[in-house]
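ingest -> validate -> predict -> emit
validate: passed (alphabet ok, no gaps, 211 aa)
predict: started
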Amino acid sequence: MSAAASLPFLIVIPGMSFTDAYFETMSGLTTTGSTVMVGLDQLAPAINLWRHALQWYGGMGIIVLAIAILPLLGVGGMQLYRAEVPGAYKDKLTPRIADTAKALWAVYAGITALCIVALRLAGMTWFDAVCHAFTAMSLGGYSTHDASVGHFDSPVIAARFEGRDVSALARQLRAERVLVSARHGNLRVSTHFYNNERDLEDFDRALGRIL
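emit:
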């Protein structure tokens, strides 16, 4: 499957080796986020969308998708489901494993749609919003630009602190037990479903003390 998913890279990008195409595909499907590609700003939109779609499929799990649409995989389906589905909770949500897989994908797609709208309202184009929603939902890390979210230079999307050493700022926040990352001169903060209002308040206070 990974070899087949590498074909669009080989067809669209002149001179790309099979090794690089396969690496990019596997990185996407496993949501690793590593990339061997540069010049993403000039990359054909179709292939850029394909990169992010690979991460989106991998985020929930190709096997979970297969169980949802191929009932013939019902034999041993629960074992495949438990091996592939993300998160600590592995029990079925419905009596039939195929229905559980469909329900998970419906929730995953619904939240992705909300994320697309939120990113569009934050200032991204529809294309960038779709791609970054795909990679945000899968926690993959791909971007449509070489500068990643720093390209947008938007405090809503990524925080930039002019005149400050962002790497040092990130280390100070981590010392305050606030996990952030510094990339391309921007401070990146990722919130998750398990974060609550108190976590956001702690981040705000920690950033206030440092600044």
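The CA atoms of residues 8 and 50 lie 8 Å apart.
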